[in-house]
Amino acid sequence: MAADLSQIVKAYDVRGVVPDQWDESLAELFGAAFAQVTGADAIVIGHDMRPSSPGLSQAFARGAAARGVDVTEIGLCSTDQLYYASGALGLPGAMFTASHNPAQYNGIKMCRAGAAPIGQDTGLAEIRALVEGWTESGAPEPAATRGTITRRDTLEDYAAHLRTLVDLTSIRPLKVVVDAGNGMGGHTVPTVFAGLPLTLVPMYFELDGTFPNHEANPLDPANIVDLQQRVREEGADLGIAFDGDADRCFVVDEHGDPVSPSAVTALVASRELARHGGEGTVIHNLITSWSVPEVVRENGGTPVRTRVGHSFIKAEMARTGAIFGGEHSAHYYFKDFWNADTGMLAALHVLAALGGQDGPLSALVAQYDRYAGSGEINSTVDDQAARLAALKTAFESREGVTLDELDGLTVTAADWWFNVRPSNTEPLLRLNAEARDETTMTKIRDEVLAIIRG
Q1: Extended beta strands in 180-301, E state
Q2: How far is CA 314 from its chain centroid?
Q3: For residue range 259-295, what is the model confidence (pLDDT) as tens digits?
Q4: What is the CATH number of the domain that holds 438?
Q5: H-type helices in 356-395, by residue range?
Q6: Which domain holds residue 359?
Q7: Which of 104, 123, 153 is the C-terminal boundary of a domain?
Q8: Segment 417-438, tens digit of pLDDT
Q9: Is 101 helix (H, G, I), strand (E, B) or coil?
């Protein structure tokens, strides 16, 4: 019987429980399929610190090499370090990680040369079909000449490249607490930060894919409590938290208060526009704050609004030639990083901005955090479409209100907006609301929730 991969092949990656849903034998077939679909002569592979990652990545390498493809293994790395290798070496790449998922999970993020993403519409469906076919009819025929498998360390080169993109030479000394969550930030931060005028206070830098301290998902407020407390205890200038594969970064100010990813997006956008001569396109998704397009325009740029999700951001980055893109989930994309996302580069921008002036981070980001936001609120519903239809009916006849359905339903008025969009994987509706003041935001948030929850 062919393997049923419907549970592990997602829209943009492979992800599932090891060994229950997939194992090294399947990883080897994925390697062979990746080699065939990309048509590459050579590929690059990296992996995170999960216990199953080395074995899975080596099996993938064997599968690709059996098809005649030369494999460069870069070993332990962050996801954006793998993107760096794909871009700098001009090779398709595969990263073994399940990001912030629990320890029993693992996965593969795949890209073409130059870190161009592979998703369902750009090769992943073909990869899945090949693997399913081979599990039914037997492994693919090996190539006449087997490819080589070699090791290469790219950490120093990755760090050096990032340091060419942000000028940190003249910043004032800063004390920064970094919570790596036992993820790959513990591997990359010491090298990237080396030589900077920073007093680094490391938290959970030990690489441990069982995540003994907290989940490596800083989007959940429970997982940054330790960082917030440590920043206050240390009297630090800021705190930074990375997720498991260190491609997202979250920031807290000197009080331990979270800095909105929208404010980070606006701050980095202003700096990237300055680097590019005060002009350029900046991509933002439709749940980022009103502050983002405002700051982009104020700094000479052109904001472009997209659906939520990295595939949409990356597609618009490529289509428009954008210099930067940001999402409220703390993914940050850079033209000078092959349009790929790198939380580390965003963190360096925050350090450069803070260290380039004398005030505290809370005062610096206040100019980029202008409105009252609800954060994302999830509601379990029986019928997503019916609840969205009820919302549309409730608001479409209101005076001075506009509706659009680019991604779920967005309703915009003079003083507030909200977006409600369905989850693709769970019976949830996700609400984000924002207003010019807290009272108005609370009122519209509660009104919308009352309709959603019926």
Answers
A1: 198-203, 238-242, 249-252, 258-259, 281-285
A2: 11
A3: 999 999 999 999 999 999 999 999 999 999 999 999 9
A4: 3.30.310.50
A5: 361-366, 384-395
A6: 261-366
A7: 153
A8: 999 999 877 899 999 999 999 9
A9: coil
| Residue 310 · residue 287 · CB < 8 Å | no
Q: Which two tokens stand for residue 60?
A: 């993938």
Query: Is residue 90 within 8 Å of 83, Cβ to Cβ?
Result: no
- Report the half-sphere exposure of 239 (CA within 13 A, side-chain side): 27
Angle made by CA atoms 166, 170, 171, in degrees to the nearest 5: 80
Nearest to 382 by CA among 432, 428, 430: 428
On whether both 90 and 102 belong to a single domain, the answer is yes
State the pairing for strand pair 324-326/281-285.
parallel
Supply the DSSP string of 322-334, one letter for each residue. Answer: -SEEE-TTS-EEE
Show which of 123, 153, 183 is a domain's final residue: 153
Quote the CA–CA distance of 407 and 215 in Å, as a whole number.
29
* Whole-prediction pTM: 0.96
How much is the CA Rg of the chain, to the nearest whole Å?
22
Question: Minimal CA–CA distance to 284: which of 220, 236, 328?
Answer: 328
Q: Token digits for 22?
A: 């997939």
* DSSP H or E run through 14: strand 14-17
Q: Edge-to-edge strands of the sheet including 174-179?
A: 198-203, 174-179, 238-242, 249-252, 258-259
CB burial of residue 279 (10 Å; 0-12, 13-18, 19+): exposed
Measured CA to CA, the distance from residue 193 to residue 177 in angstroms comes to: 12
Same domain, 63 and 112: yes
Q: Which two tokens stand for residue 425?
A: 């994987």
For residue 2, what pLDDT band results from cuts at 50, 70 and 90? low
Helix pair angle (261-275, 343-355), 10° resolution? 80
Answer yes or no: do 307 and 417 share one domain: no
> Which amino acid would we find at residue 376?
E
**Whole-angstrom distance, CA of residue 228 vs CA of residue 237:** 12
**Residue showing tokens 């309703």:** 411
Catalytic residues: 99
